[in-house]
Amino acid sequence: MNNSSKKSAESWKRGVFLALVKLFHFIAVVQFVYSVYYDYAHVHVPSTTLKHKNRSKFGGKFRYLTFLDAIIQAVYFIIALINDFVGTNEVLLSKAPKIRRLKDYFFAAFAFPVAFNVGVTFWGLYAINRELVFPKAIDAFFPNWLNHIMHTNIMIFIVLELFTSFRTYPSRKSGMAGLSIFMAAYLGWLHVIKYKANIWVYPILDVLNLPQRLAFFAMSLVFSIGLYLFGEFFNEQIWVKEIKQASKVSSKKVN
């Protein structure tokens, strides 16, 4: 096979791969957008089935990190799909378009660490005592397929994204700042709900005393930062060759 034929074959393979990436992003958008819609519009758990019989509705679905993360995943994959058409997924770029820079930052600071925070925490607590995080009484109102989209698929799809699309991680300071602000704001939001409605959103917080709750919140922040570093490390291992190529090109331009 001559050079022209090789280039043609490689170009064809690249085109097929990019088409599959677009299809993957489209499926992810449909899945997460629909799950957010369905949860918001159709999942209504009667207060009589829960521990707090007169449970306040203050905050609605936005009380739950699971719901907020589903929104984050929907927004991320919408950005990724837009980038597929008006941005670029190329490795060697003189200057990445704004949509690509937004996509890369959103993945690093929010989509990856929050997805794993929700998934690992949920299934970890579920394995220990599901009543602390997802009482059995909710099963009749919260479909199993929706449960897996919001607690399992979030990790599966973000890992697939990690393998199929190259990204440049932002500076560690910038990425961690975004994640830390988000997580701190959410923990603050939990206390606002406690003050306004006199309930803890998650049953596990009811069984912890003040020092234990403070330790729990601190561990949540530390865990989130650890997930950010894990995502950054994982990305470097998967795309090590491409990152080296990008670094060489950047070095030549500086020199």
TrEMBL record:
<keyword id="KW-0472">Membrane</keyword>
<feature type="transmembrane region" description="Helical">
    <location>
        <begin position="16"/>
        <end position="37"/>
    </location>
</feature>
<comment type="similarity">
    <text>Belongs to the AIG1 family.</text>
</comment>
<dbReference type="GO" id="GO:0016020">
    <property type="term" value="C:membrane"/>
</dbReference>
<protein>
    <submittedName>
        <fullName>Uncharacterized protein</fullName>
    </submittedName>
</protein>
<dbReference type="InterPro" id="IPR006838">
    <property type="entry name" value="ADTRP_AIG1"/>
</dbReference>
<keyword id="KW-1133">Transmembrane helix</keyword>
<dbReference type="Pfam" id="PF04750">
    <property type="entry name" value="Far-17a_AIG1"/>
</dbReference>
<dbReference type="GO" id="GO:0012505">
    <property type="term" value="C:endomembrane system"/>
</dbReference>
<feature type="transmembrane region" description="Helical">
    <location>
        <begin position="105"/>
        <end position="125"/>
    </location>
</feature>
<feature type="transmembrane region" description="Helical">
    <location>
        <begin position="145"/>
        <end position="163"/>
    </location>
</feature>
<feature type="transmembrane region" description="Helical">
    <location>
        <begin position="64"/>
        <end position="85"/>
    </location>
</feature>
<feature type="transmembrane region" description="Helical">
    <location>
        <begin position="213"/>
        <end position="231"/>
    </location>
</feature>
<keyword id="KW-0812">Transmembrane</keyword>
<feature type="transmembrane region" description="Helical">
    <location>
        <begin position="175"/>
        <end position="193"/>
    </location>
</feature>
